[in-house]
Amino acid sequence: MHLAPEVENSADAPDVFGERILQVKLVDFWKRQCLTTRPEYDVLAAQERYDKFCTEFLLTMPPAFSLEPDTRWDSRLPKLGLQRQILHIAIFDSLCYNFRPALLQDCTQVELLPGYKQVLLSSHKKALASAALKVLERASTLHNMIGESHNRYPGIIIPTFEAAVPLLCLCADPGFPGETMDACLTAGRPHPLLTGMANLTRNECIQAIKDAVERLQALAELSKMAESGAQALASLIARIEFPSTQGQHQSNIIGTIDPTIQLIEAWKEEQMGNIGGAFTVRGTNSTFPVNWGGMEDLGESSWDKGSLPFSDI
């Protein structure tokens, strides 16, 4: 459907509702994958979900919305770039959710895993970091595109906070990302996290966290949500910048990860009531795209754009 007069006679123009349709398809995909928030992490199941995501979702995206997009329509559809960034944030946020349980594995249990699973688990941690970095990158781009007139927009604040948290957890390990050879996440074909994993450095992750804190602090003047997020991240970042002695290595990791995971859940629960319906799919038990589990009756849903700052996107 083409409602924009700039493209009404162009059959191959992007659908004006393309981003919304893809958001629904994205939720529907993860709904079918039986995601769990339990601490037990099945590395093979997580890998299978990622493989399916690359082949069943990413390869079917329209060119204008793909991760390597065709931008020839951007000049004629000014909101298309904004839509693309919002969708990409949701995509990489969902990948963070897929790999996040890798953070919770106890080292003593990991040592009992077969060697190939240990390598795969290490790769999944790097994949999580790569996905989180891409969320922060897209959130920064979106913020720059819409300017400072939408400082309360939760579509920037929440992804920024939630992507910084797993990076904090990963960097709590002074040895991250390590020198272990990565497992090939998708056999014989490229995948969206490949480049980020290959070039991942600890300094890059720490700098991204600092940039996220600065962004939230800049937004905090007009947003209590951003203020609380910035304070929470700032209270934890010193732990990874000044690690303790090697003998306390394991206790430091667990001591940072456990309260940080609790922090994100408590912060999310507190802040969700303030979002005012943004990105809510009516008829469900969850808010989209922050929570990727428990979506019900999606086929009967309709969009409530709520407090979106640019309702004409």
TrEMBL record:
It comes from the Eukaryota. This is Transcription factor domain-containing protein. It comes from Xylaria hypoxylon.
